[in-house]
User: Fold these one by one.
Assistant:
Number 1:
Amino acid sequence: MRTHPVSRQDELDVLRMVLEEQYERHRTQLALLARQADRSGRTTVGAESSATVTAVSRRALGDLSRALHHLEQGRYGRCQRCRTDIAIEYLAHRPVARYCPRCEVAPPPGSDRHRTAGTP
């Protein structure tokens, strides 16, 4: 029996499922946090930590939504700086990555600052 090599598109299809699952998980988490806030009011001791988790989930939803949009447009997995394909192994660990590992740590042109992981 002969096996066929897995194509980049096949691997991107798997990553699409991962992104969709993560999106749904964060969406559910936000709904639960909103329901909890409605029940307990905003003056509880855990309100600050709930606000932090809510902010993190909202940011994650934005990142995931952008990644899914790029998938639909055929631009997912391509470094936004150097335009090379980002390795599937890297995307598997960082599915919302917008930059390849080389560009992730390189300072943007005309800047002395380094990028931090996952930031534009």
Note: Residues 114-120 have pLDDT under 50 and may be disordered.
Number 2:
Amino acid sequence: MVSRGAKGQRGRGERLTVGGDRTLIGFGASYKPSKSLNFDIGYTHVFVNDSDINQSSTTAGALKGNFEGSVDIVGLQFGWEF
């Protein structure tokens, strides 16, 4: 799975995934030990490209800099059919 983020959105504040492009890579697995029981696990890593920020406000001052980041997401699921 690959996703590209939005750039240039104004008025939403600075957030990790809004300020720069991002790429997601994910995978998962399932294990079914019996007819009525299953276990699932998934993992996603989000790569966020470095982004520059340069904002100024008459009331809040100036915000200048550069940021980078990444996110790791793990999901677990247990299923039981009856």
Note: DSSP finds no helices and three strands in the chain.
Number 3:
Amino acid sequence: MLKKMKTVVAFGNPLLDTTLLVKDDFLLNKYNLKEDDQKEITKNEMQNICNDIISYEKNQSAGGCAQNSLRVLQWLLKKSATLLFLDRQEKTVMPLL
């Protein structure tokens, strides 16, 4: 028999994933990017990309290994549970709904 889980706490660094739908290869070509790839870029390149995507519709979602693990756990439980994510940089406690 499983005991009732009261609280799960995860410690990790906060990340914010931003996705956008592009209708052509303009950004990929301009910044020498490939589909489904990763690339380390400079701070200047990041600023330029951010300026170029201002007019694009964006979706943002919380990310990071610890936070994503809590989301999967909650999906697996298929019921409400108290899951907390502790952000060391901001010193905040954020409930994951």
Note: The chain is about 30% helix and 30% strand.
